[in-house]
Amino acid sequence: MVELSVRYNPDSKEWIIIELQGSVETYNSLPLKDVGLGDLHYNANGEPLLILGHHLLKGKIVNLSNPIGVFAKQTKKQNSTLSDSITDDVTCDYEVVALVRKKIIFATRPKPILVKYESDKD
User: Fold this and answer.
1) What's one GO BP annotation on this UniProt entry (predicted)?
2) Which domain holds residue 19?
């Protein structure tokens, strides 16, 4: 039998999932690791707007039917002596880092952001 220790802090942060339809690609197929994806804003009605490069996506906030827990695994080594042999026992604890109760769904096609430049007329 495996015993798991889970610590829950009620002051844990609440996270939100962002769901995009389709794929996100970069120029020259650069990896997306450690790259800012875009800017998330909310309009006057509280609807989320995501700006990705020169594209605007409108989304909606949805409650998840079952919350999702985000866990952090913490392992500890403990030395123990059993019958003249030294062994390292590894214990494993989990801490709830955050709870996810909502997600933002961007299911519509992105709209291009067009900027109209006026030429200088003297």
Assistant:
1) DNA replication
2) 5-109
